[in-house]
Design a protein that fits this description.
- InterPro entries: AKR, AKR5G, Aldo/ket_reductase_CS, NAD(P)_OxRdtase_dom_sf, NADP_OxRdtase_dom.
- There is one protein chain.
- The chain is of the alpha/beta class.
- The protein has one domain: Alpha-Beta Barrel (TIM Barrel), CATH 3.20.20.
- The chain is 39% helix and 15% strand.
- The chain is built from 10 helices and 10 strands.
- A hairpin with a 5-residue loop joins strand 1 and strand 2.
- The protein starts with 8 loop residues before the first strand and ends in a 17-residue tail after the last helix.
Length: 281
């Protein structure tokens, strides 16, 4: 499945188009570096920016978006902006208020995608009701979840009027989430990868290095290409302009079926982030 270019999109189950490739900004502080990273990404063709309330950087993301639009002549509708409601704000009224705060910090009139960040037991269903309300009122283009396992999704959908459009999870060659990927495909929920490069821990892996050498690509490019060929949206993080460009240079080659299988076989159920079934925040 060869995606055309960095601006290529998939269609969510509600008809909204979401870019296959975007910029993640986890652990990037507010400030000029983040503003410039967002501007560089948009300049080089990225159309998707992913942030979250807990990242504490929505103001700089918003500033970067405004400056990028001004400098490129693009309009707001050309970009796809995602944020997420944090755990302390899960609840109907609290989630509605959190959405307004995120919009205010970003300086935007709407989000393209709003996600429940973590499946906090006993709280995510009320939060989902708030997201459904925002969606039905036309305040947000798409709604979804993050870090939900199959049983969380089943539980949520028992009472939901609208099924999630996206599930953003940790996904990389050592955590291939095979069951979850299959389930989301069956339910027409788009899977999206956070930490696709396992926070840099895979960049000297011998099997990935061998495949990368064959194509004249970096290990990071091979992993990101693997994401796309699995039909998984990917949002690698970088603040360096040259790396932002390099990460997106994955549309001129295609991994062979045997190579996809080799990479799949690296799975160790190994996480760099918290376990969605065992977290305490």
């Amino acid at each position: 499945m060869l995606k055309q270019d960095v601006k290529g999109t998939t269609v969510l189950h509600n008809g909204v188009r979401m870019p296959w490739f975007g910029l993640g900004v986890f652990k990037v502080d507010e400030g000029a570096e983040l503003v410039e990273a967002v501007k560089s990404a948009v300049k080089y063709g990225y159309r998707s920016i992913d942030t979250a309330a807990i990242y504490g950087n929505e103001r700089s993301v918003g500033q970067g978006i405004r400056e990028a639009l001004s400098e490129t002549g693009l309009t707001r509708k050309d970009l796809f902006v995602t944020s997420k409601v944090w755990n302390v704000d899960l609840g109907f009224e609290a989630t509605l208020a959190a959405y307004e705060r995120s919009l205010d910090k970003l300086g935007l009139d709407y989000l393209d995608l709003y996600l429940i960040h973590w499946p906090v037991a006993g709280k995510y269903k009320e939060a989902w009701r708030a997201l459904e309300t925002l969606y039905q009122e036309g305040r947000v283009k798409a709604i979804g979840v993050s870090n939900f396992q199959v049983h969380h999704l089943r539980d949520l959908m028992e009472d939901a009027h609208i099924h999630p459009m996206v599930n953003q999870v940790e996904f990389h060659p050592l955590l291939t989430q095979k069951e979850l990927l299959q389930f989301t495909r069956e339910q027409h929920i788009q899977l999206e990868a956070w930490s696709p490069l396992m926070q840099g821990k895979l960049l000297d892996h011998p099997i990935l290095s061998r495949i990368a050498e064959k194509y004249g690509k970096t290990v990071a490019q091979v992993i990101l290409r693997w994401d796309l060929q699995h039909g998984v949206i990917t949002i690698p993080k970088s603040t360096k302009a040259h790396r932002i460009v390099e990460n997106a240079s994955i549309f001129d080659f295609e991994l062979a079926l045997a190579e996809m299988g080799e990479i799949d076989a690296l799975n160790r159920e190994q996480r760099v982030g918290p376990d969605p079934d065992n977290f305490d925040f």
